[in-house]
Amino acid sequence: MQPVPLFGSGIYGKSAVVTRQRRVNCYYENRADGDKSKVVVYGTPGLVLQFSTGPQPLRGLLSVNETTLYAVISNVFGLLLPPSVPGGIATFTALGNLNTLAGFVSMAPSPNSSQIMIVDGVNGWIYQPGPNTFIAATAAWFTPGAATVTNVNGYFVTEQPGSPNFGVSNINDATTGSALSTGAAAAYPDNIEAVDALAGNLIAFSQQHLEFWQNAGAPPPGQPFALIQSSPLKIGLPSIFARTHIDNTLVFLGETEAGTRRVYRIDGFNVTPISEEIDYIINQPGFVYADASMLSYQRDKHPFAQLTFPTMGRSFLFDLSTNIPGEAQSGLSTGAYQRHIGNLSSYYNGDTIIADYANGNVYRMDDNTFTDNGAPVLREAITKHHIKGFNRFRVPQLYLDMETGVGTPSGQGLNPQVSIECSKDNGRTWLQARLIPLGMRGNFVARVNARRFGQGRVFTWRIRMTDPVKFVITDGAIKRKGKQETF
Known about the structure:
This protein is mainly β.
């Protein structure tokens, strides 16, 4: 047997002949010391129910100083107090009412936590925890209809709908501000769609371009922000809420001047596309992208951005440490794809919490949980194509070096199995699955071997697991027979 590089960074997009690789609910980790392998495959963390707020999903979730949690449910903005025992009903204290019932809201706190501003695409409100007041945003700097709000260096900023302008409040006070505190993203003739902040700079996302602004002007009633010269880029924003922050990086779904949608990351002033294969997928005819949204979380050295297209029922996962993308889904799909249940994320009480898109459940990510709140999680990894000079050859054996002996004490997963399917036509069709035991609990010497794959000119394997146990692949090896015996 000879170790082979089973896994690569590709994603099946344009042609199965080029690559049929796919990763679902798993990610790669590069190992600097090599040891058994330079690349290891790990399963993504499962979801543990922390609390529920009822049947209605959260429209917005905001953690302030990681200790205070606010949410919008239906038309109510309020304070969330998780139960003392995880899994119970949270206490939701209403603080004020909005005028809309559905759709995402945008929220931003001031640096001193004295105010929180909420906008929903129709109106704006300001909550002040000190005096416990909830008032409508009526100051001259604010324009009704704004869908996004951010805070940069103490200034609240919102876009002014239907124009290239943005408004800026007085410092640490969204209740006051001048109509003269207005900037214009005027590098190109289009309207601002959203505002955001990164590394102390303001980012104005317009329909066809983006700009970086810094705090360098006159304070209100003047305009405190000045355009950073040469920063405008011809990348538009086709979906307002397909943006997320993680690890000093902003990830967003953008659109080029030619109308091509791409997923980008912003590090400082550098704007870089992440995956051309996924870009190809999301640009196919009929692919609905306008309702896309993003969330983020981090596991040890891996910052993840998760992009969901609700209408299409698909979620993509971007590992920013390796720049290798994959997919995420919850449950077992009846079709080719299924979205992940995560809809919103926030960092609270030392960990990331994830809000469900279908109800008021809020989860914690856990590396030692292998279900999504009890629902099965599909782990899937499709290998690279294996050829031998394009000649026919035989594969008598495939060996996967996996973490074994991981069975559960009882029930599903007592005797976990991994499914291995083989394709000899570049992954277009798959032969009957072989179910190989991973070993009951404590059987650490169990080996994952599949044999007698016959002859072919190309071999591709699909590895799947749905049992609620740990999923780790460290390496693989195959035995090959043919005229050529080397890779």
